[in-house]
Amino acid sequence: MAIISPNNNIDEIPNLVFLELSNGASKKKHPFKNVVLTTINENKPKSRWVVFRKLSLEKNLLIYTDFRSKKIQELRKNLKCGLLFYNNKQGLQVHFNASYKIHHNNELTKKYWQGIAGSSSENYTTFYPPSTPINTINDGHKIDKNLSDRYFSIIEFYPSDMSVLQLSRGGHVRANFIKVDNKWKGSFIVP
Ligand SMILES: Cc1cc2nc3c(=O)[nH]c(=O)nc-3n(C[C@H](O)[C@H](O)[C@H](O)COP(=O)(O)O)c2cc1C
Question: How far is ligand 1, taken at its centre, from the CA of residue 66, in Å?
Fold first, then answer.
């Protein structure tokens, strides 16, 4: 069933979207559990899936990555990035343009590292940095146990505008929003 219906007024849509995002971040099998992050690399867009970890109280979006990864380098060079979600069960697509903050070696990373250490810490402690060319795949699995949370980082995205498309037999709904004074202002557009 669609999340947004043609009966919803424009101001109801952001809350419906953020409720769904909050479900996505907290439920393992939810289609919003993964998100496509697009950065700019030498004037070319570059997209990849990442796990959507948390929607903060301030409604910012958190993901985890290795501080040495290309996405971090790309974000630091170019402030522009996009986040694309699609709920294929309920036909809801949401795209954000966002600014961001990279958390590294701070209170936030220390806090979330506790939930990672021992389970998926190998994602952030490879001996060679992500994207390093290697001779055998075993080299890519080498872990430096001493690294601990040294390269663990959290990217906190601050959405600035949002495009919503709800596909539905009852009538598609499409709307664009921008964030002004911490409130989403939007208008419907032709789907
Ligand atoms: C379903 C899925 C989830 C992923 N989650 C993450 C993630 O949470 N963080 C991350 O850094 N990479 C994640 N990856 C790997 C990235 O897509 C990407 O290959 C890797 O981070 C290197 O990207 P970069 O070189 O552009 O930094 C995930 C890949 C898939 C397919």
Answer: 10
Ligand 1 centroid distance, CA of 110 (Å)? 21
pTM of the prediction?
Answer: 0.96
What whole-number distance in Å separates Cα of residue 37 and Cα of residue 23? 19
Q: Is the CATH number 1.10.10.10 carried by domain 10-188?
A: no
pLDDT attached to residue 155: 98
SS3 content of the chain, % helix, strand, coil (to 5): 25, 40, 35
Given a cut of 80, whether residue 56 has pLDDT beyond it is yes
Residues 6+ apart with CB under 8 A from 75: 39, 81, 100, 102, 155
User: Taking the domains of the chain in order of start, what are their residue ranges?
Assistant: 10-188
Pocket test for ligand 1, best of 34, 40, 41, 50 (most atoms within 8 A of CB): 50
